[in-house]
Amino acid sequence: MTKYFLYIRKSTDEDDRQVLSLEAQETELREFAKKEQLTIVDTFHESHTAKEPGRPIFNKMLERIEKGEAEGIISWHPDRLARNSVDGGRIIFLIDSDKIQFLKFPTFWFEATPQGKFMLNIAFGQSKYFVDNLSENTKRGLRQKLRRGELPGYAPLGYLNDLRNHTMVKDPERFLLVKKLFELYATGNYSLKSLKEKITSAGLLSRKGNKLSISVIQSVLQNPFYYGPFKYNDELYQGTHKPMTTKKLFEKCQQVLQSRARPVKRLKEVHAFRGLLKCGECGCMITSEIQRGHIYYRCTKKKGPCSQKYIREETLAEQISDILQIFSIPSFEAKKMVAELDKDENEKFRAGFSFSQNLKSQIKECEEKLEKLLDAHLNNDISREEYLEKKQKLLNQKVEISEKLANFEKKGGNWLEPAKKFILASNQAQIAAKSGNLQERAEKLKKAGSNMLLTNRKIKYFPRGAWEILENLPVFGAEPRSGEAQNVFKKAENLAMLRGLDEVRTWIMENYTDGSFAPSR
Asked: Could you tell me the pTM of the whole model?
């Protein structure tokens, strides 16, 4: 009596919808065995692709055949046994060595003759060709989707797969809640744990109705898909889906994530200038402590020995006041500049048109650079690593410029109000410099400068954006009393004001087109 093993397989990624399910195969095969009077000694079920060798259940079955536990195999079709050359060759070898004497298929004829083995080889070859061709077609389809800016696979949280148009659309139940996730975390007031509790109470759940885990929330916050581009196989592509957030807000979330990676233990005492400066010698943060009733600031020296000495808070406060004076516009000058802005409506339209055209030219330039970069990569002029790095920079640059253009066109290039706010903020810097509120001085300095260092008890600062323009202007002061000096002063003052206004206008349009008046760098 010939003994048979019943082998049933269907992979989870099966693309051939004609293949029966495991249960349907078993039912059909048992009826076939009963009709042919075949004796089944064991049944093997496997949900695994046959594209590559290494199926554990299939290998176990062949090992038992080699031991003589069965002489034949019943299966639905040869492609259920092998779709790769290794497994197909192994079966042919077992037939040649008489370990396998019979192969029975309801849909395929086989006998262990030269002609039968030839036909079996053809069947295995056709199965492999089908898989290879299917793989190539799938890869070609993926490449086309990527060219169109479509992310292959399941839509991220907050989006849904539109199966009819093969695109990703807003999830009406979750889109705004996921967007709120970014907005809340960017404030810096939430840890991932507290953010999870907050957003869960607001109603954000997974598609299966479960609470989001902290790791999922972190993954969402780090996914560039939500502001436009997306990564596929470590390469960045420009998406055509509707962005959920802006690049600026996304980067703010990354800063918060990075800052919370190493939580800092805060002292109970509130010292105004702690966390404001870094040591100019070793790069460590400047901390503070109380000695004999006075507050002193010093380098933490966490990176090793450092020669920098202590500095008293009063001395530091005086230096900060002097710096703020440089960035300050007196009240009478601020009023003049605001009045000048009110007269600038006609200039606003011309400047806005020029600014819009400039942004469009920059976007086109980015697209041309991307095309040249791709040509260089295809011609093997640059390595894949260099190509991916430069492509990511250019795509991010294009997204950033496109956001500026979209915000500018949406708000009609209304830079006048942000410009007025900037002038008033500079005027408030002067007020803070003269006040006794140290915390307010620290906040104003943070807004005006970045990467501030303390070296030899002196502050070295790096003004940002329009604040740098103010630093380079002639220092504003009290008006002279003599008539001749008065005229000279007025000319210099007006020249400085107009020059400053023109440069502030350009900077405002480039950095504050969203109207938020928050430093973008």
From this structure: 0.43
